[in-house]
Amino acid sequence: MNAHPMPSDIDLPPGVRLEACPEPMVRLVVETPLASGHLYLHGAHVAHFQPAGHHQTLFMSARSQWARHKPIRGGIPLCLPWFGANPADPSAPMHGIARLTEWSLVSATANAAGEIVATLAMDSATNPPYPCPHPFKAIFTAVFGTTLTVSLEIENTGADTMPVSEALHTYLTVGDVRQVSIRGLAGCSFFDRLDDARTKTEGEAPITITGETDRVYLDTDADVVVSDPSLGREITVSKRGSASTVVWNPWIAKAAAMPDFGDDEWPGMLCIETANALGNAYQLAPGAKHTITTTLACGKL
Predict the structure, then answer these.
(1) How many domains is the chain partitioned into structurally?
(2) Which of 137, 148, 169, 180 has the fewest CB atoms inside 10 Å of its own CB, making it the most exposed?
(3) Are 237 and 281 in contact (CB under 8 A)?
(4) pTM to 2 decimals?
């Protein structure tokens, strides 16, 4: 595969550079006193975020398939304009086309707080990896500072109302997923995708991971806090424009069955996804826009 063309007309602030990786893909590299980070143009994909004084925040699989029209495994894949399988076309790419598209770098600047603000754009009408029945444009923004904030805006550029389901499919690095606890979803209804999508209600106790887990919590805008005693930290996942939260870990058998995921990597990751999925999918009118945002903040236990 040929590398994505290296942008040549973007002025970059100190601590930021573009590089063609051996994969080969183009990524924006952030190295400032506040944090380090990597943002790939392929899929507008944040693959690394480490605030100063903390462990790496995002999990990346060593088995990720670095190839055009393949998703990157780990970090924050974008699921847009559908989450999961396309209900109208089972042959369409899982989780939509945004994570498979080569995005354009619009700008990278430093704000007054010393944070790096990077903006990327895509248009489904321009060389999409799969024909999209509803044309749309999207803007992705990542702010690298003591926290990481990512925003995904979709605009319906077609003449018809567009069904949208979406997620910021965030993979968190944890010391041992069997020891973490998850707070913030008590009392929420969720679809248990491993139990015939039965609707259940979460109890009051913190959630623990004791086996393969795939749950879509609905009608919640609450912050989720992941306590990780192995790494001595908490990660708070907050969000806007989102009514669903997904909790996922593949555990042993699923990890072994995934070609782009290491058999022994599952204990070191946990997905807490900011989403609008299933019953929280929405209809976007022609010309309308919607933005979904998540912020990751690390703290000491």
Answers:
(1) 1
(2) 137
(3) no
(4) 0.96
Domain assignment present for residue 30? The answer is yes
Q: Which two tokens stand for residue 174?
A: 């944890």
Nearest to 267 by CA among 207, 212, 222, 216: 212
In a domain, 4, yes or no: no
Mean pLDDT of 83-93: 91
- CA–CA separation, 44 and 142 (whole Å): 9
Encoded tokens for 127: 């060389």
Residue that has been written with the tokens 């806007």 in this structure: 240
Q: How far is CA 262 from CA 25, 251, 255, in A?
A: 21, 11, 7
pLDDT digits (tens, 9 = 90+) for 171-205: 999 999 999 999 999 999 999 999 998 999 999 99
The tens digit of pLDDT for each residue in 140-154 reads: 999 999 999 999 999
Q: In the chain, where does DSSP find H-type helix?
A: 251-257
Domain of 263 in residue numbering reads as 16-300
* Residue 10 is assigned to a structural domain of this protein: no
